[in-house]
Amino acid sequence: MTFVGTAEAASATPGGEIVRWGSALDWAIALTLGVSALIVLGIVLSLILYRGRQAEGGALWLHLLSLGVLPLFLLAVGNFATLEYATEVQFCGSCHLTMKPFIDDLYNPKSESLAAAHAQHRIAPGAECYACHANYGLHGTVEAKLTGLRHVYKYNTRSYQLPLKMPEPFENTLCLKCHNGAKRFMAQEVHLDNGQVSEELRTNKTECVSCHAPAHDIPKPKKTARSDG
Amino acid sequence: MLGRLTVVPAITRGDWRTRMVHAAQICVGFVAILGYLAFATRSPLMILAFASTMGLLVVGVILFAVVALFAQRTLVEEEFGQGETIFSQGDTGRHVYVVKSGNVEVVRTRADGTSEVMGVLSTGDHFGEMALLGHAPRNATVKTLTPVRVLKMSGGNFAVLYTSLPGVREQFTKVMETRLEELRRTESRS
Questions:
Q1: Which of A56, A145, B57, B176 is buried most deeply by CB count within 10 Å?
Q2: Residue A57 pLDDT level (bands cut at 50, 70, 90)
C-alpha cells in the first residue's frame, strides 16, 4: 500500500484505484462546463443569425435560453460546484508553495501526525482539510469559505509569511464535533467530567493537540517574507 | 389593440433594447467563459473570479427580462438632434416611425448620384412603412431638420395594427400610394 504525496492523490483510494466518476461534485462540474459552453454558443449564434435584430422576434426565443433559463441554471450548479470544489484537498493543495508540505504529510505512511492518521484512515476522503478546519454547520462553512478567499488572495499577491501560523489557537470543538460521544473517546477518563466532555477540553484550557501532537508533521520552512515561484 | 400598446421613454438614442440585449450578452457571456475556464483548468484563482462575478448572471437575466417585456407591445420614443439621420436609403426596414415633434426631410438619391428632397414631414406624420409593407430596402434617407422626437414601432406591431384595424390600413395605404406616385415621378424626371 502506497500513498502518493501530491494533492492529486486526494481523488484516489490508497490502493491507487481511482474513485468512479459520478459524485455530486463531478456532475456539478460537468454541468457547469456544459451549460457555460451552451450559453456562449447561444450568444455567438444569436450574434450571427440575428445580427442587428437582437431585440426582435426569433432572436428573443434564442435569448430566452442563453440569457434567461441557462444563466439561472448556471447560477445554481456553478455555486454548488464552487462550494463543493472548495472543500476538496486538491483545491487547498493547489497553493503548492505553502500547502504542499501539509498535503504530503497527509499521505506519508511514515507520518505520525493527526492529519495523516485521519487521512490514511479515510475519515473524510478528499475533504480532509475542510473536515478539520471548518466549524460545524452553515456558519462554519461560510467562515471557512471567507478564510479560503483570504488565503487565495494572500497566496496570489504573495503577501503571506513563512512559516505559516494559525491565526488563532485550534479550537477543541473542531475535534469534538466528531469525537464527542465516540466510543474510544468516551472510554478515556481523562476526557471526561461526570460522564461529559471535561470543562478543560470544552473551554480550550487544555488543547487536544497538547496530548495528541503533532497535528501536522512538516519540514521546517526557511523564514521568509515572501516566496518566489 | 392600441390600448395594450405602451409608450416607453427613450433611455438612449438608438435602439436601447438592442443595447440592453448586448449588455446582457456581455454580462452572461463573460461569466460563462470564466466558468468554463475555471473548471476546465481547475485554477483556484479562476474559480474565485467565477464565484465573485456570478452576480452578473442575475444582472444579465434582468436586462433580458426587461427587453422581453417591452419587446413586443411597445412604441419606443426616441430623440434625435438636428441634422441626424434616422435611417438611410438602402437600409433594411424594420420599424415604422411617427413624428411626435419636430421636422424631418425625406431625401432620395438617384442612380446618377444626385439627390432630391421628396418632402418634409412634421408632427403626426409617419414614415418607414413602405420598406416593411413592400419587403424592400429603404427607398429614401430620412434626416432631421430640427430636434425631433419620434415614436418607433416594430414591424411586428405595425403588422398587427395594419391587419386588424381597417381605418389604420386605409390611412397607411392612401399615404403609401401617394408616396409611390411621388417616387415614380421622381424616377421618371431623372
A1: B57
A2: low
Which residue in this structure is represented by grid cell 484512515? A121
If asked whether residues B63 and B148 sit together in one domain, one would say no
Task: Write down the ipTM of this complex.
Answer: 0.71
Q: Who contacts B164 (Cβ-Cβ below 8 Å, separation ≥6)?
A: B1
Tell me if chain B has a CB within 8 Å of the CB of A33: yes
Radius of gyration of chain A (CA): 23
Model confidence pLDDT, tens digit, residues A179-207:
998 998 999 989 998 888 899 898 989 99
What CATH number does the domain containing B131 carry? 2.60.120.10
Q: How far is B30 from chain A (nearest CA, A)?
A: 9
CA separation for the pair B99, B119 (Å, rounded): 14
CA distance B153 to chain A (A): 12
- Would you call A43 an interface residue with chain B, using a CB distance cutoff of 8 Å? yes
Residue B103 and residue B146 share a domain: yes
Q: How far is A43 from chain B (nearest CA, A)?
A: 7
Express each pLDDT in B66-101 by its tens digit. 888 776 556 777 788 899 999 999 988 888 898 999
Same-domain pairing of B78 and B62: no
* B5 within some domain: no
The answer to whether the Cβ–Cβ distance between A82 and B61 falls below 8 Å is no
Inter-chain CB pairs, A–B, below 8 Å: 117
Looking at B49, B71, B93, the residue that finishes a domain is B71
Task: Tell me whether B1 touches chain A (CB under 8 Å).
Answer: no
What is the nearest CA distance from A88 to chain B, expressed in angstroms? 11
Tell me phi and psi for residue B109, to 5 degrees: -100, 125
Where in chain A are the domains?
A: 1-85, 88-166, 172-206
The verdict on B170 and B153 lying in the same domain is: yes
On whether both B164 and B109 belong to a single domain, the answer is yes
Chain A within 8 Å of B64 (Cβ-Cβ)? Answer: yes
CA A37 to chain centre: 26
DSSP label of A222: P
Same structural domain for residues B22 and B114? no
Closest CA to B108 of B79, B84, B143, B135: B143
Cα atoms found within 13 Å of the Cα of residue A30, Cβ hemisphere only: 7
Q: Which of A111, A123, A174 is nearest to A147 (CA)?
A: A174
Give the structural domain span for B48.
Answer: 12-71
Q: Grid coordinates in use for B18? A: 438592442
Amino acid occupying residue A13 = T
